[in-house]
Design goal:
The protein has 324 residues and is an alpha/beta fold. Helix content is 40%, strand content 23%. It has a 7-stranded mixed beta sheet, sandwiched between helices. A 6-stranded mixed beta sheet has the order 10-9-11-12-13-15, sandwiched between helices. Strands 2-3 form a two-stranded antiparallel sheet. Strand 6, helix 4 and strand 7 form a beta-alpha-beta unit. Helix 5 runs parallel beside helix 6, helix 5 packs antiparallel against helix 10 and helix 7 crosses helix 8. The longest helix is centred in the middle third of the chain and has 17 residues. The radius of gyration is 21 Å and the shape is globular. The N terminus is likely disordered.
């Protein structure tokens, strides 16, 4: 059964030109429908973050929103089409895995506006929102190298796709910025919703000598984080602050501010009635990505200075990450 979160609040739009008066304003309710990523709500990562952004838009801007999960619709395409037929002003596909289905529906509804998150579409009625996850992952790599005792760290990806490669490439470059000779193990689970597979890959890497793990794998990554804690090694979360998943292991998390991105999209719609740009990309400079507070370990003054220096160089584009 579909679930709909609704708040009936009007968004007051000032008339162009002149001073406002009761006759110069009108109510406009913006409606957004989102097809969540494959794991859906409860992934403690991607979908949950986007959902929080829409809740903020509902409470702060009066936006009305609806959503679908693949566990209910069985396919992305069915869910996306349902959201179109429900009359939403903007229909969002969360994650690159929804692209093919979203574009298929978009071709059938050329007047409907769509938003694809984490990938770029060439269709005229599809806007794109991407994040510079390689920048945030670079900082995670710096921290991993600073705190690794063995000089061997690991990366676990959900699937082998361009956006996950961006996480990996940024991580590798950050590690090597501190320890050029560090060893980096890498594996793909080919599943974002399998914590047991994440734990298995983590065990393998730890057995090979990795003492820091960075999974970019949704719920699969949660399994890796818990295994890292069980084996007494360090780890890093992804997309949202995952410290609560493994409080003895998670040093920090690469924050992909999907919640902020969704809120900004909603604000553009309420303020302007449309999205001004077809492609929007958010990085460190735009607060689109970042890192959670450092816990579990303590950074020395020298280590903190190193991290901040590299972060500044990245923002000022003195460092270019090869994934772009």
């Amino acid at each position: 059964m579909k679930r709909v979160l609704i708040i009936v609040l009007g968004v007051v739009m000032l008339a162009l030109g002149g001073c406002s008066s009761p006759g110069d304003t009108k109510e406009r309710e913006v409606r957004i429908g989102i097809m969540l990523s494959d794991v859906g709500l409860g992934d403690q990562s991607f979908s949950d973050s986007a959902f929080q952004g829409l809740i903020k838009a509902r409470d702060g801007l009066g936006v009305r929103f609806d959503y679908r999960e693949i566990s209910e619709t069985q396919t992305y395409e069915i869910g996306i089409e349902e959201l179109v037929r429900a009359g939403n002003d903007l229909v969002v596909g969360l994650g690159f895995m929804s692209q093919e289905s979203l574009e298929s529906v978009a071709k059938r509804y050329p007047e409907q506006k769509f938003l694809l998150i984490d990938s770029v579409s060439e269709l005229g009625n599809v806007h794109s929102l991407t994040f510079k996850e390689d920048e945030g992952s670079f900082l995670i790599g710096v921290l991993a190298a600073l705190k690794s005792k063995s000089g061997h760290v690991g990366f676990i990806g959900g699937v082998d796709a361009p956006v996950i490669r961006n996480f990996y490439n940024g991580y590798v470059q950050g590690v090597h910025a501190v320890k050029p000779d560090a060893k980096i193990s890498m594996a793909f689970a080919e599943d974002f919703g399998n914590p047991d597979k994440g734990a298995e890959l983590a065990r393998q890497m730890i057995a090979q000598g990795a003492d820091v793990l960075y999974p970019a794998a949704g719920l699969t990554g949660v399994g890796a984080l818990k295994e890292a804690q069980a084996k007494g090694v360090l780890a890093f979360g992804v997309d949202s602050d995952q410290f609560a998943v493994a409080e003895k292991a998670v040093v920090s998390s690469m924050l992909k501010h999907i919640d902020e991105g969704m809120y900004q999209v909603a604000k553009m719609l309420t303020d302007q009635g449309s999205l001004p740009d077809r492609q929007l990309s958010l990085g460190l400079k735009d607060n689109g990505v970042g890192i959670a507070p450092v816990r579990v370990v303590t950074l020395s003054e020298q280590e903190s200075a190193k991290l901040e220096s590299l972060k500044r160089d990245l923002i000022e584009q003195k460092i270019q990450i090869g994934s772009r």
